Amino acid sequence: MTADVAVETTPEIPLWNDPDRPVAARVDALIGAMTLDEKIAQLYGVWVGASANGGEVAPHQHDMEEAVDLDALLPAGLGQLTRPFGTAPVDPALGALSLLRTQSRIASAGRFGIPAVAHEECLAGFAAWGATAYPVPLSWGATFDPDVVRRMAAAIGRDMRSVGVHQGLAPVLDVVRDARWGRVEETIGEDPYLVGTIGTAYVQGLESAGIVATLKHFVGYSASRAGRNLAPAPMGPRERADVLLPPFEMAIREGGARSVMHSYTDTDGVPAAADESLLTGLLRDTWGFDGTVVADYFGIAFLKILHGVAGDWAEAAGAALKAGVDVELPTVKTFGAPLAEAVADGRVPESVIDRALRRVLGQKAELGLLDPDWSPVPPALEGVDLDDPEALRGRIDLDRPENRELAREIAEKAVVLLANDGTLPLARPRRIALVGPNAAEATAVLGCYSFPQHVGVQHPDVPVGIDLPTLRDTLAAEFPDADITVARGTGVDDGDLSGIGEAVDAARDADVVIAVLGDRAGLFGRGTSGEGCDAESLALPGAQQHLLDALLDSGRPVVTVLLAGRPYALGRAATESAAIVQSFFPGVAGTQAIAGVISGRTSPSGRLPVSVPRGPGSQPTTYLGARLAQLSEVSNIDPTPAFGFGHGLTYTAFAWSDLAVDAEQASTEGEFTLSLTVRNTGERSGTEVVQLYLHDPVASVVQPVQRLVGYTRLELDPGEARRIHVTVPADVASFTGRDGRRVVEPGELELRLAASSTDTRLTATVTLTGPRRQVDHTRRLHADFTQEPGPQTSA
């Protein structure tokens, strides 16, 4: 007799929930089971704010949107949750609990149990209350160090992922074309190669933590006329192809970015949000991008409101979908009822909805949001009692010591010493006059997308949430025996002259004056730098130049320190300051980094990611100008910068020598190999940044006089030498020819090894031979640097 054996069976799960099946098959099955309303619901977000007590999120109201009824929306599903942490100050643990509960509600409300993708801003750190505020992207560029940016992005991504966030709206890959633009602080610099390499490193770091990186703004936003936000961008196709597109190309190809945000701008009358040749033809068909394209906030509605290329919301929705936009952000406007009606009356084919949906659901599958074991509990709350929300308060730390240490490393590497007559580093000053509007202002280190400046200013009764020592605090710690007198002098932009006399009196009684000037970050005119805070000229805001000139007249050495979001013309201070220290919103550890450079505790190693203008009105200009953009006898305006792109001093000296070129000729599909020796000839350790610029004397179309094609950082002890080898493929000499195709042309080239765009140290003249060669997006993108140890000798 045989015993009955109980056989354990596994209930059959729908194909779309089966993680063992291919993503494409899962997505196709799910789309086939959905109604039109359920499909459309996956293609928009809702702007929410996490509950301060851990309850479900509440829809955020904005003057661009109507009220949202979640109870009415959720049975059909929801594609995205917009900024649950970045809308109002919320304790991170309670915010995570609020998001958890909301995701549970979303999943249980719909037929398919699909949670939303939660996205946040992360331009200078996770934009959440209490999270580390890192240096802004312009400081990333100043480091010339992709590795440290990669590590920072990974740390930011881990913090976001720990509380349930899936997507980050960064990095900004716009190349600076006019420094008057308010969003310069959000950019990495004025050179596409620097922007591309640093931005790609950020993408790699964020994606390594499981966060979907979103490249923005695709493309041309920074090329706006007169540096105005959301202004027309009169760029030609060659400027777009050779200056503005390469960073995006690199970040997709080498960074693995999974999302792109379209720009607000239009190119020759075609808005990016409705540009099929850009969002589908170039991005997908040519570059092979298979991620999602998300709308910049309200960008689809702007097709009707600002661009005037759509007559109603449905027409705007249809144009964006046809062009290749997949997700409407920040909230449902055109992709809701108007889109459903447009499908019903035949104006929009359902196939374009299915195309976008396939990308959205594919990404959700990759994130594990379709798996049967998906849980709304984020890693930071796993194994925690969730029934007592107040007991969770303070449990999650988003500003841990390791975060701040990384922020300190970046801030130190980003400080740029522009000028120094030997006054720095300060020895043991007895009396310091610390003057200026940013001398004792804690938030002067923060950019406009940091949480305190972006959101916190709207909640003045809520503590800032992170420790922000002022420069007064850190200088007092750096020089404990010094008598430091603080005088504000004037405000950042109030034009007040009443305090300048007091500041000058303090200066005359001091051994040295430290003038701390610059910007206040804000949004839409509430600051002097930031989104919507564009400048009419590059003169220091308010009465700061008046204050600076008065201090220069005091007879005491003046160390000019800038905490700013863009470069400013400094007038006579550019040549009369004892020293100039430039810092671009350096984050939570920024004032310690500046104090360390002033004292000599650390050696400056930053390099300018943007040129510093000589005069306030010589815009727009970058170092990437062609010959006609240079100083000439036929114009009285001198565009020559006071300090060029890539410039930065150290507390030591370096000698460059022994340039060797393996072969002075190579074919248009070949490469050159250069080598040189760099020696620290000074008495202390320091960092040199070897920059390689390409000059093409004769080309079929006008070229910039020079452009960066490679760089490397060298840290050398006194007397230490390092032999550097550089492989330069012919591909890096490519440009967009007259027929709109990228080509490498035969002819003579100069390879300039330089300490900056204005300081060439060694030049190799080489020649490309053979036929004119067409290249594409698979071309080689880098001049590769390798280092070998050199002989150790005493200084």
Silhouette:
globular
Q: What is the distance, rounded to the nearest whole angstrom, between the alpha carbons of the first and last residues?
A: 94 Å
Count of beta strands = 28
- What is the strand arrangement across the widest sheet? 2-1-3-4-5-6-7-10
Low-confidence stretches: 1-10
Instruction: Give the radius of gyration.
Output: 27 Å
Report the sheet with the most strands, covering strand number, pairing sense and barrel closure.
8 strands, mixed
Q: Helix coverage percent of residues?
A: 25-40%
Broad structural category:
alpha/beta
Classify the beta-strand content into a percent band.
15-25%
Return the average pLDDT rounded to an integer: 95
Helix segment tally: 22
Oligomer: single chain
Protein name: Glycosyl hydrolase
InterPro entries: Cellulose_deg_GH3, Fn3-like, GH, Glyco_hydro_3_C, Glyco_hydro_3_C_sf, Glyco_hydro_3_N, Glyco_hydro_3_N_sf, Ig-like_fold
Family: Belongs to the glycosyl hydrolase 3 family.
Domain Fibronectin type III-like: 688-757
Short description, anyone?
By secondary structure, the protein is α/β, with parallel strands linked by helices. It contains 22 helices and 28 strands.
